[in-house]
Amino acid sequence: LGELIGINDTWIRRKYVIKDCNTAVAGVYNVDDTTTENFPTEAYKYGSLLVVNSGFFGSQYFVPDNFNVDPYIYIRSIGNNGNTFNKWGKIKATIIT
After folding, report:
1. Phi/psi class of residue 35: alpha, beta or left (left: φ > 0; alpha: ψ in -120 to 50)?
2. pLDDT tens per residue across span 38-93
3. Taking the model in full, what pTM does it have?
4. Which positions ≥6 away from 95 have C-beta within 8 Å?
5. With bands split at pLDDT 50, 70 and 90, how would you rate the model's confidence at 1?
6. In whole angstroms, what is the distance from residue 59 CA to residue 78 CA?
7. 3-state SS of 22-52?
8. Which of 59, 31, 61, 35 is nearest to 47 (CA)?
9. How far is Cα 65 from Cα 93, in angstroms, rounded to an integer?
10. Does the N terminus or the C terminus of the chain have fewer Cβ atoms within 10 A?
11. What is the pLDDT of residue 95?
12. Whole-angstrom distance, CA of residue 70 vs CA of residue 78
């Protein structure tokens, strides 16, 4: 039924812990110390990985769950129908009190 109404792997759905960031399809994943492959270097090991995908292009966003320890949001683009993963970049977040 989902296919008939256009629900496919490009929709954002809640997923569970991911081991390899390159295998993530569209969704929101838990990240912990078991996420070891293709993860942003030096990033805090707990948080959420958001993956969006238009079919041919996509992007990944990792948000640590503790900005006091790691004040960055990590981002990378995906191309070539999910076969090309670009390097991770990071954006510094400012804690507002």
Report:
1. beta
2. 999 999 999 999 998 877 889 999 999 998 899 999 999 999 888 899 999 999 99
3. 0.82
4. 67, 68, 71
5. very low
6. 5
7. HHCCCEEEEECCCCCECCCCCCCCCEEEEEE
8. 31
9. 12
10. C
11. 81
12. 24
